[in-house]
Amino acid sequence: MQNNTPPFRAEHVGSLLRPAELKEARARHERGELDDAGLREIEDACILRAIARQEEVGLNSITDGEYRRAFWHYDFLEHLPGVESYIAERKGFAFKGAALKPKMLKVTGKLGAFHDHPMIDHFTFVKDHTSRTPKMAIPSPSALHFRFGRDAVPESLYPDWDEFYRDLGMAYQRAVRAFYDVGCRYLQLDEVYLAYLCDPEQREALRQRGFEPDDVIHHYVDMINTAIDGAPEDMTIGMHLCRGNFQSTYVASGGYEPVAERLFNDIKLKNYFMEFDTARAGGFEPLRWVPKGKHVILGVVTSKTGELEDKDYIKARIEEAGKFIDLDQCCLSPQCGFSSTEEGNTLSEDQQWAKLRRVVEVATEVWGSAV
Hints:
By secondary structure, the chain is of the alpha/beta class.
């Protein structure tokens, strides 16, 4: 791994707990008490402080904390040409002990285009305000399919699922290029559903929606490869995998074994942010499938609770991973973001920053550098 080229030895997934000032502003905006310009001003100020804090704790990949989003995925997907969001009458997607707001997506036109997307500006704001490497995270294309199926994709528009997968992959390919053209050299695809498909319950639920899990894995791999096809060589693209992250709850369980071979060998990207903070994510054995030249960012520090992991514990986990992969191919990070939705996980901002500082400290002690 080369210095000053991501992924860095000390990494993070991207989202950060929303400050109280920002939460209040978003609530006022939703009630019509604060206009768009007023909200933008507060968002800008909060993001500048978050950038400074990331730099202060020693991180080299810098994000906006996803402060302008309510969700890790909907806010990106609803601005794709041909996609709209709406509030459903039924309850939102269920986690283990909580449920999302009932926001849904629907495809209203043919996919494939990418233009006028607000997150292009979101990225450039970060780029313009850090001297380190700005990183952008967007949901993987599977996020428009896995939860919704025919509830979002009318048969009148896409009677053939193969055409849907192809068009969606092409929309993402154009998105990747659009981010590159404004200076993005570090892009992350948040791909949670391949990890979901390691859980027998999730596989059965997918069958109940009319899809064969192994076929879906095949299509997701192809969509991701379409998305990154033609990406310039100086653009680092990573993939984050987790099993759900909402107010410190989760959706799925199970180790990576059912998808590992395809994940590491058929997908053409080189960097994988992987959840390993609890036994629910399984052991490190699937890392034996990682070929030379690819990197795994070991998510052994949890973002779901505030208790600070002991350095020796983290080092022992890294050493355990080293039984299955060359540690020179590895980095360290929390297993997920701290606030995949605007509600955030159940820990304090001080605890969040302490965990990120601990990641930098341990990475420096293990590899000799956080870079």
